[in-house]
Structure formats: C-alpha cells, structure tokens
Amino acid sequence: MIKMIKLHSRTLSRRSFLITAGGFGVAVAFGGLPGQAVGAAVAPAAEGNYRPNAWVTIAADGIVSIMSPASEMGQGIMTTLPLLIAEEMDADWDRIRIVQAPSDAEKYGNPGFYGIQLTGGSESTRGYYDLLRLTGAQTRKVILASAAGMLNVPVGELTTEPGRVVHARSGRSFGYGEIAADGALPDPLPQATEADLKPADRWRYIGRRTVQRVDVPSKVDGSAIYGMDVQRPGMLYGTVLRAPVQGERPEAIDDAESRAVPGVVQIVPLSYGVGIIGETVEATQRAKDLLKVTWSRSSRVRSYTSGSLLEHYRSVGRDLSQTGVEALSEGDAEGALAGAVTVITADYMSDLVCHATMEPMNATALVKGDSVEIWAPTQGPTHTQRFAAEVVGTTPDRVKVNTTLLGGGFGRKAEADFIVDAVSLAREVEGRPVKVIWSREDDIRHDKFRPLEAQHIQVGLDADGNILGWRHRIVADSIFARTMPDLFASRGGHDDVVTEGAQFNYAVPAHRIEYIRQDNGLDIGFWFAVGVGYTRFGIECVIDEVAAATGADPVQLRLKLLPEQPRARNVIETVAAMAEWDRKRDGRALGLAYSDAFGSHCAQIAEVSLNRETGAIRVHKVWCAVDPGVAIQPVHIEGMMIVGIANGISHALFEQINIVNGEVQEGNFDTYRVIRMSEAPDIEVAIVPTSGSPVGGMGQVGLPPVGPAIANAVARLTGGVRLRHYPFLTERVLEALGA
C-alpha cells in the first residue's frame, strides 16, 4: 500500500552535432480547462488580441491562456509553472487554459539552462520561478492599467480578485474578459519588479492542496496525446535496425526479403544502421527482422564488458597514484588522513542502469524542402530543432517542434537519437510524415545508460571519533565529454553531473573530491538523479560506517555534523520522529539517509527485513521528510517523492544492464528487472517547507536517499554487513552475509 500524508507545514556554449555511427550528442547543462481534457497537451490559445506578453492571452469570454514552457512527463510541471503566473496576475484558476509553449527559446527558454528550452535536472521550477512570477505580476499591472482607462480612474484606486478588477469607491468592477474585449493595452506596457510580487500570506494557489493537476483528467479518460498517439494525414511508419554493438556501421545490406514485405515503402541505408519506411508498423517490423546486415567490427565498444570493467574501475579508485581532476579541495585531506588515529576505507559501486520509460522512444517528422515539423515527447525542444536542422541541412528556425506529453523521461528524452531517426527517414519521403517507433528491445539495448562507476572513500578519525578528513574518488565515464565537449574541456576534464552530490554540507575540516575519467567508447547519459543517485549512496553509507565505528547513533551523528544547517536538521529530526527511530522492531531494522541535492533537503528512513536463506531484501515502509523551500503544490510534491522512492528502490534492488563484448544482454522486462507493484512499500511523506528559502527542485529529490537507507537498515539488521554494490542482487547479499 502507498499512503501519503502531510505531517507538518511551516511557514550553450558552441554546439557540436554528433550525427555519426557512434551516436548522437545532446547538450545539457544540468488543453482544456482544469477538470477537462488537455487535448494533445497542446490546447489552442484563447482567441483575441489581448496579449500583455508572450505568456498570457485573455479572451473576451474570460478564458486566460497561459503558456507552459516545460515538458510534462508526469511530474506535474504543466500545472506548477502556469500556476505561478496565475497566482501573481490574480487569475481565476477555474478559467485557465494551459497551452504547451512552442519551440521558441528566445521567448520560452529556461533561465536556469542558459536560456534554452530543456526539462531536466530538477531545474524547471527553479529556473522559471522568478521569471514567471514577475510575468504574472506584470500581467496584473497591464490589466489594471487597461481597467483604469476604461473607468477613467487612477490605477491606485483599483484592486483585483480572481478574474476581476474592482473599483471599491464606485462599486464597479470588470471581469478580465470584459477588459480583454473593450480595454486597450497601455503603451508603454508597465513593467514589474520584486516589489510587485505578492507576499506569501496573500497567495491563493501556491501552497494550497486544493489545486489539482491539469494533465490528469485527460490521462484518466484516455484523451491525452503522447508521442505514440500522434496521427497525421498520409502518415508512414519507420523503424531503424541498429548494430548490436554501439558505434558500428552497416558494410553490406541484403534487403531483398525485406523489400518483398507488403506495405514496405523504402529501405534507407544510414551511417549508423538501416531504416525501413512502411505503410504499417507491422510491415516495418517484419522487414526489419528479415534484413541481413554485415556490420563493421572496428568499434572500441567491442572490448566493453561491464563486469570486468567495474572491477578495473575499483582498482583505479584504490590506486592513489592515479590522480584525477580535482572537483573540490577544502583543507588538507591527505594530511588529515595521514594524521588520523583511524581511517575508514570503503569502495562503493553501481552498475549500468537503463531508463526503460513506459513510453519507448518515438517521434513523428515531416520534411518539406528546408522546413521541418516534428511531433515528439521530447525534453529538449531547442536541441530537437538543432539536430533536425543538421540532418536536413537547414537552420533551427525552420524547424517547428510540437512537444507532446511524455510517457516518462528521466533524462532519456533529452537525447536526440530518436529525433534523428524520424527526420532522416522523413527526408527520404518528402511531403509525408513518418512516425518512428522504437521497440522495447531497441529502447533497452540502445539506451544511453547511467554510467558504470566506482567510488573510493577514505575518512580519517581522531581518538575521540571526530572526522578529521574525507577523501572521495569517483571513477566513471563522462557524460559531458559527449554531450558538451566544449564545457568539458573548459573545466579541465571535470564532469559536474557525474560527480554531482559528492559535495555535502556535513561539517568536516578537510574534504577532497577527485574525478578519474574512464573512456571505453560507450555513450552514457543522464539518468534520474544522475550522479547524486550513487554519490549519496557512498556518502550516506560511509556516515553510518563512521557511526558504527565510533558507537554513535546514526541520527545523532548526522545532527552533530550539521550544526549550522537548520533545514537539514529539521528533515532528519522530522523523519526520525515519524518512524519512531528508537523503537525496536522484531525481525526488521531501520536505516537512515539524507540528501540536499537539487536545492531541496530530504531525509528518509527505510524499514526492511532480510531473508537470510535467499538473500532477498523486503522494504516494508519508507518515511520521507522533504523541505522544498517553497511548497508550490504540496500534493504533487508528495507524488514526486513516491515516484522517486519507488524508482530508487527499483534501481537499488533490481536494475542492472550487463554488457559483454559490447553487446547488451538485456532486452525487455523479462531480463531487465524493475520493481513490481507487489513489492512497493508503504510510503509516508511529510513536507516541511522553510519560509524565506529559495524554491528547490523536486523531480529527482526522492531517489538518492532510499538506496543508502536500505543498505544502512540491512547493516543494522545483520550486525554490520555492508552492501556496497548497486543493485543489491540476492547473490551479492548472500556473498556479503558469508564474507
């Protein structure tokens, strides 16, 4: 059972287009009315010319259309961002229509992502928060100025209530629709500053539990349009046969049998595979199965075997003579370790993991001359424009991107490979749209996996058990080297996202973080919480190792290490109270972990049991306390925490990609194991916002703490058996028990 509660409430650099046999790069720096269907996730804007700015249109019937600039992939952002505008402009939420913003970075780019349109990194709310609130405030000032002209009164005599302007002195008022129909936009338009923003005690929508997500009704009644649902007149279907080993290209193609399949329109040789265009999905899949291709054998990935490489990564981490790029240096960590009475040393590792979004990769493209139109579940409209333009030989402004709902994203749909597939095939049948659909096997075997990585951590203690120094070495491939090579080079070969989360706010006198890059040719990418998902695994488990070595309580040790971090202390104390930390359990144990990633503070406690005969871990309950700074949508925050926790348990216990001699061994959910509904624990979420704090990201916050919380619970249950390798497969647990 999953249960949600609210326990407390307190007040681009230059691009490099990599359309090669080796893969595709993507640059990442890290409707209807509410209650009605949001058709195609792109409702038409309200009719009328009353547009105070690029974000808002008001129709004569009072319907207010608000642009939503981010991609909706289940995180509720299609509600959160427009809500900020609606709050400040004093709109009537029951008269709001949400419109998916077009691909136009100049108007709708995210300030948190260098002004491009990109959804990821838990950066949407943080990036747009100030801009959209100011936009709403400016809209309200425009409306007031228009009404003042209609009433021939000073603006200062007017006030607003949801959807109306009121002149208390005369008793007159106008609805926003009346103003749109009869009022004139002031010239020049008034601008807004922070002084025009509402104080928190006047918020009508922000922080309220009564605001429901606008995308949910259409998902319930089936009218929602995902990329897979797109239908266009004259549409053809496409698929691509890719090499079993990444980076290879077709050298010889025997397509005689494939061309004979009824409904096949064209076979298209590509630099990275073979495309098939057909009248039906079935025809393209049948033709794909009949293709006989001789692949090149020159890719470096042919020597990639994940199991042996991970052991190599661990040895690199342990070999202190192999220096890496310094990501952080505070104090003299090496000197502190040399002078320590006790040094705790541990290696933590994680396997490759796959995104496995419920909606596999797909996109629809139409090419007409130098113009391209795309319908796709993409996280990155700006990059979609750029890659599509590169394929066709046009400019990004000639590419229109229609962003649909996403059936899961987790960073995978920020990539461009599935976009390039669709545009490459549509170019061959100019004037007819082509929908490319990846099979689940395509999706898993040709994913951009979270990197294989090993961490070597050393913690030095004095005679009283106090931490003197902390050294953290992270060994992994680079994401930035592929996706943002210029940025990677400018930072001296440091990959911020791979080491993300290694910096913490625990008070230690000396702290050093090193990144030792490994390059074995495999494209790896952004996966839910990316680096934080494994760096916090290592950090939080080592904190418990320190507690065990010094006889300290894990809760009290963390509080001791966070003397000037009231938000961190609050979530830890809150979750400890929720779980009744000091109460003994028969046959079960509790484990704690904390994270401050993405600008939010989150502490979790997992209650687990262990079958010592099989090595199977059962997570019975997870308590979660989270401080998002500003809790814009409390109900939705609870939902995101549950999603993050479920995904975190899945990747900590089950998820694993194995590559042998360059070939991915998993292909579907029969071999790529994910958490099942019957394995989902009871989850309780407490939201403890801190008044006056900046708004934090939420989309990925729930994942990082749950894995180490499980591992720490197992250690307490077994008297100190440490699980140091994601995922905690039963055979690994049994091996640890027998060690």
TrEMBL record:
Cited SUPFAM superfamilies: Molybdenum cofactor-binding domain
Top-level taxon of the source organism: Bacteria
UniProt-listed SMART domains: Ald_Xan_dh_C (SM01008)
Domain Aldehyde oxidase/xanthine dehydrogenase a/b hammerhead: 221-299
Keyword presence, Cytoplasm: no
Gene Ontology molecular-function annotations: isoquinoline 1-oxidoreductase activity
Key words, A-Z: Oxidoreductase
UniProt-recorded name of the protein: Isoquinoline 1-oxidoreductase beta subunit
